[in-house]
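Bumping with the actual sequence this time:
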Amino acid sequence: MNENIKAITDFLNARMDSEPAPAANSTELQALSRAIAELQKHDSRQELQALALATLGLVIDRARASLQSEAVLEKFIRGESSY
């Protein structure tokens, strides 16, 4: 995976894990800004599509995990033994 896309998706994934937004001049936010600037500088449709797919994949994975957790919790509450 492109390192700029990885930097952006890693940042988004951390926010989905309820990590707070980094301080304005933090190393993490500077790295994110550089990654975004590099993608914009290249102006590559292929890179933007890869970023979109990677971001969508994060959302799908998170939604899938949430639905699975909810199903397990419902079975537990109903007293079913197989989770």
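The tokens above came from a reply further down the thread. Residues 4 and 38 are 7 Å apart (CA to CA).
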